[in-house]
Design goal:
7-stranded mixed β-sheet; single chain; Beta Polymerase, domain 2
Length: 321
């Protein structure tokens, strides 16, 4: 689906154009064309390939989908991929944005991504002094917007982690806590798969030899790189915290089991002593101590009660009960 197709010159929008006019506008000096597509099919990509002269391998990757973040050069053009993440039913839905960038054009294609990048175009058109840098600035603006969307997701996951850490020491189910922590770790893994490879990809766009379309934009791409480094560090910290929380939760389970075992052992001891005494006096022997004594029965009962009271006191003092 075609979202937008416009021509620009010297940082200012000239006009909206039709798809079949793209190649003609590309031949005009000082102009560049910016096209945005959503979930394009093979026919649309074939049309874009013909209009822009896209490399067939890059087009093949865009059609195949499920690409890791990367930046590849094809002659004087760049093919970049960055992943998008959107919350959906408690999970993170993974999408991609494919960017074909040449000296005088930008073609962006988003797949499985509900939120558009219309605000990027609006921002760029409000900043003609930056947009006059052409396609290199548009590539930066698109990648910067995609990376900025990671921060709210990470903040939400960190809030979930804090809530789970507080639940570890209350009376909630340890099994439920471990399941929730593991699901959270999976979400952080999904986020890591988006940001980790992006660090290497963006690193190719500043410092040393960079693609011509990104020349003079090094400080902007370095800013994205710094954001990605911070994201990855915070993700690693959160994942380590989750691993620690899982270990603590398992220790809490072992402690609870130990407390239960101690209570059962204490109650078993309270029952065992009277059972032993009753068992002895239940034997069928004629000559037994106090067997024919009038106060023998209440004495034995009092003795069993006294022993149990003493044992209960000792167990309570030892925090077994």
């Amino acid at each position: 689906m075609l979202i937008n197709c416009a021509a620009y010159q010297e940082g200012k929008k000239l006009t909206e154009i039709r798809k079949d006019e793209i190649s003609a506008w590309l031949r005009k000096p000082g102009c560049f064309v910016w096209v945005a597509l959503r979930d394009p099919d093979a026919a649309e990509m074939a049309e874009m390939k013909a209009q822009f002269g896209l490399h067939e391998l890059a087009v093949e990757d865009a059609l195949a989908g499920s690409q890791r973040p990367k930046v590849e050069e094809y002659g004087d053009s760049v093919f970049a991929v960055i992943q998008t993440l959107e919350p959906s039913d408690g999970e993170l839905k993974v999408g991609e944005v494919y960017m074909f960038v040449g000296p005088n054009y930008v073609l962006s294609c988003r797949r499985q991504t509900e939120k558009s990048f219309i605000e990027v175009r609006t921002r760029a058109e409000r900043e003609p002094h930056l947009l006059k840098h052409g396609s290199g600035y548009v590539l930066y603006a698109l990648m910067d917007a995609a990376v900025d969307r990671y921060f709210p997701i990470l903040e939400k996951l960190e809030d979930e982690l804090e809530a789970l850490e507080e639940r570890i020491f209350d009376r909630s189910s340890p099994r439920t806590n471990i399941q929730a922590l593991y699901r959270l770790k999976q979400k952080l893994g999904t986020l890591k798969h988006a940001t980790g490879p992006a660090v290497e990809a963006v690193g190719k766009l500043f410092g040393g030899r960079v693609p011509m379309v990104c020349a003079h934009m090094g400080e902007y791409f370095r800013d994205i790189y710094d954001h990605l480094i911070r994201l990855n560090q915070e993700i690693d910290t959160a994942r380590d915290t989750i691993s620690t929380a899982i270990s603590v939760n398992i220790s809490m389970i072992a402690m609870q089991e130990n407390e239960t075992t101690k209570k059962l052992a204490s109650y078993a001891a309270l029952i065992a002593i009277p059972t032993l005494i009753v068992g002895i006096y239940g034997m069928n022997f004629e000559h037994m101590p106090e067997l024919h004594w009038a106060y023998g029965y209440p004495l034995v009962l009092g003795m069993m009660a006294a022993i149990d009271v003493y044992l209960y006191y000792r167990f309570k003092k030892a925090n077994w009960l």
